[in-house]
Request: fold
Amino acid sequence: MLQRGAEDRKTGAGQYFTPRPLIDAMVDCLQPRPGESITDPACGTGGFLIAAHAHIVERYEDQLYGDQARKLQTGAITGYELVRETARLALMNMLLHGIGTSEARPLITIQVSLAKSPHKFYDIVLANPPFGVGSVTGEAYTSRKDFWTQTTNKQLNFVQHIYTLLKTNGRAALVLPDNVLFEGGAGAEIRRRLLDLTDVHTLLRLPTGIFYANGVKANVLFFDKRPPAPVASQRPSSSGSTTSVPTSASRSSSAPCAVSISTSSSPPSTPAAQTTRPEGQVSASARTSTMS
Reply:
């Protein structure tokens, strides 16, 4: 029902729906496991959350009993949504898929995700943030002191917000339009910070028109949050003074994702687009310097 509504492009319902093949591909790349906390800060009707739950149940069914099963059903998977009616759809959708209970506290929080610094942190963040320029409330989120830079671009703010949501070594996958990859100013600063503080290991180029807005060129960005760089140790020298010895920050062990996405019943005529990042560089199709 939700998918049919999303296909009605005249009403704009597609803003609440991400194609199922794309959702499944992103979840398969992140490989959620029992015991991990998972969220979507712009959850719409809950597609990412339901797919993450299904992935865990399918692959770890023999481990899901007792407290582990209860946690998965009632608190490990949560989301945030701005529109009250859409949040109700998400809660109904999750209940129908065995996530949450009618008696427990709702797993979807209705709020402007960007307005406040997070008080809870997650192992996995999956998101398809809303496309567009300008904040939902007309504010520039100047109160967010944890943001690297101030901007009214919602996608750039969601990139910053998702970084703050992650635990150390947490994993994220988010859908982003082209402007996030190529915009100067705040966009360039955010890209620099991402490369410095995370392991941006995969950039997936999506087919044009995969979402309700015709002509929107989109990508999926995968990154892992690195541990903080350790403070340089002090080593005494032969003269009695001390010398700073920098130690390298540990890197994530994530390998680039191999992704295949098909939104039709027939096999694609060409391989699905997939790009990976060599050390210190992100590639977007043939353009390999867009995030540097």
